[in-house]
Design brief:
By secondary structure, this protein is α/β, with parallel strands linked by helices. It is built from 10 helices and 6 strands. α2 (34-44) runs parallel beside α3 (62-73) and α6 (132-142) packs across α7 (153-163). This is Response regulator transcription factor.
Length: 214
C-alpha cells in the first residue's frame, strides 16, 4: 500500500519508514509538519496516512486535525494516528468524525512489529482499530455505567475486542469460543445497547461509538 508518514521526530520517522519499506509498502512521503501532511496527501493520494497526534506548529492535536482535513477530500483514505500517551479524547474525536478505516495506537506498539502491521492492514481495509490500552482505559472509566453496565463480563470482553477492530473470527480465536458463541454475544450487546432495530448504520460501529460515549 502507499503510505504517508507525518512525524516530527526524525529518528522515529526514519525508523518507521524503513520498517514499512522492508515490508513491501511504498512510503510516498515522510513529513515533519502538519501543513506538509495536507500538501503531501493531496499530491500523492495515499491509501493510508500515519500521523502523530501532536505535531508542529502548535504541538497539540495538529497531526490529527491535518489527517481529518485530508480525508474530507479523500473519503477512502485510512487514518492511523499515533500517540505517545493514552489520550482517550483524541480517540473518541477520531471515531466521531467517521469510524471506518481509522486507528489509534500508542507509539510503543510499533515495536511489536507484527501487531502494528496487522493494525495497519485493518485500517487500510476499512476497519476500526484501537490500541488495547486505550480500550482498557475506556472500559475502566465507563464499563460500569448505563447502558454499558448491562453487559456481562464476557460481553464487555467481546466489545473490547470489537473496539480494537477484530473480526468475529479473530475474536473467536482470541477468546477460545466458537464463532456462533461470539455472534450470540454480539447480538446480545446490540440488544442491551438498544441497537437491534437500528437501520442505515453499522450496528457494530454504533456499538463502538456508544462504548466511547461519542
Amino acid at each position: 500500500m502507499r503510505v504517508i508518514l507525518a512525524e516530527d521526530s526524525a529518528l522515529f520517522r526514519d525508523g518507521l519508514a524503513r520498517l514499512l519499506a522492508d515490508e513491501g509498502h511504498e512510503v510516498a512521503a515522510a513529513v515533519a509538519h502538519a501543513d506538509e501532511l495536507v500538501e503531501a496527501a493531496r499530491r500523492e493520494r495515499p491509501d493510508v496516512v500515519i500521523a502523530d497526534v501532536r505535531m508542529p506548529p502548535t504541538h497539540t492535536d495538529d497531526g490529527l486535525r491535518a489527517a481529518l482535513e485530508v480525508r474530507k477530500g479523500l473519503p477512502e483514505l485510512g487514518i492511523l494516528v499515533l500517540s505517545q500517551y493514552v489520550e482517550t479524547r483524541y480517540a473518541a474525536e477520531l471515531l466521531a468524525e467517521r469510524s471506518e478505516g481509522v486507528g489509534y495506537v500508542l507509539k510503543d506498539r510499533v515495536m511489536h512489529v507484527e501487531e502494528f502491521l496487522d493494525v495497519l492492514d485493518r485500517v487500510a481495509a476499512g476497519a476500526t482499530a484501537l490500541d488495547p490500552e486505550v480500550v482498557r482505559r475506556l472500559m475502566d472509566g465507563r464499563g460500569r455505567t448505563e447502558p454499558l453496565g448491562r453487559l456481562t463480563e464476557r460481553e464487555r470482553e467481546v466489545l473490547h475486542n470489537m473496539a480494537q477492530g477484530h473480526t468475529n473470527a479473530a475474536i473467536s480465536e482470541k477468546l477460545h469460543l466458537s464463532l456462533s458463541a461470539i455472534e450470540k454475544h454480539i447480538n446480545a450487546i446490540f440488544d442491551k445497547l438498544d441497537l437491534s432495530g437500528r437501520t442505515g448504520y453499522s450496528r457494530r460501529v454504533l456499538a463502538i461509538l456508544r462504548y466511547l460515549d461519542v
